[in-house]
Amino acid sequence: MTVYYNSSSLHFDQMSSSITVTVESEAPWYMEPTVNWIQASTSSNTISGNAGTTTVTIDVAENTSLNSRSGRLYFVISDYNYTWITISQDGKYVNLGLPSGLLWATCNVGADRPWDYGDFFAWGETSPKSEYSWATYKHARGESKSLTKYCYSSSYGYNGFTDYRYTLELSDDAAYINMGSGWRMPTADEFYELATNCDLEYTENYNGTGVICHLSSPRPRAIWRICRTRCRFCSCSIM
């Protein structure tokens, strides 16, 4: 039996995807994955073919967990005659090979795909809203010089308030609240590490999606930094 594909080990990001393989066999065969997130067809986990050449499509489901995963597709014509393709898939993070070993999310908070914008948050708030202004800011009393939290100057604090908090508490961290334990917004130093250890390539209208982004790519992995007018990426620390 021969399986025609350019690799016996395939790697996917966390999104659902498909591959097409050509199977050539001198006898009837069947194919079965070792895990249920790999589908050999749309209706069953097992697909079979007759002798000769057959083309089949393999579907890989989205990985919604934090951890990466792997599994195999077995192509079998007898107990002693089989081959396989090993498939691995990222979780909601990607290892960019940074010096610190920090793992970055593959999507923005609230996004389902790497090229989606996701949700928008005011710094220190954990829910999107319809209006972003000092009047609606959670940690102020209606204007810029009325801060009630994360204030290091009495000139900007409400009635001279200061707390000298420079880093978000987890209760005010949009990533932690919306994505769960283990996630948080990056620090300014971590942004700097990302920028200085990645190749940044400006991309416009990526693959017809309308997305304008920077592709951060310490090969062979990548993450997206989605750009939009007046949109900013915030750290968890006051610079």
Task: Describe the structure in your own words.
It contains two helices and 14 strands. The chain has helices spanning 174-179, 188-196; strands at 2-4, 9-12, 17-25, 29-33, 38-39, 47-49, 52-60, 69-78, 81-89, 93-95, 103-105, 200-204, 212-216, 223-227. It has a five-stranded mixed sheet with strand order 2-9-8-4-6, with no helix packed on it. It has a four-stranded antiparallel sheet with strand order 1-3-7-5, with no helix packed on it. The chain is elongated and about 85 Å long. Strand 12 (200-204) and strand 13 (212-216) form a beta hairpin. By secondary structure, it is mainly beta.
Brief characterization of the structure:
The protein is mainly beta and 239 residues long. The chain is 6% helix and 31% strand.
- Report the helical percentage: under 10%
End-to-end Cα distance: 61 Å
* Poorly predicted ranges: none
Major beta sheet, strand line-up: 2-9-8-4-6
* Structure class: mainly beta
Strand content is 25-35%
Shape: elongated
In N-to-C order, the SSE pattern is EEEEEEEEEEEHHEEE
Largest sheet: 5 strands, mixed
Helix count equals 2
Mind telling me the C-alpha Rg? 24 Å
Strand count: 14
Mean pLDDT: 83
Key traits:
239 residues, mainly beta, five-stranded mixed β-sheet, 2 helices, elongated
Give the topology.
Elements: E1 2-4, E2 9-12, E3 17-25, E4 29-33, E5 38-39, E6 47-49, E7 52-60, E8 69-78, E9 81-89, E10 93-95, E11 103-105, H1 174-179, H2 188-196, E12 200-204, E13 212-216, E14 223-227
Parallel strand pairs: 2-9
Antiparallel strand pairs: 1-3, 3-7, 4-6, 4-8, 5-7, 8-9, 10-11, 12-13, 13-14
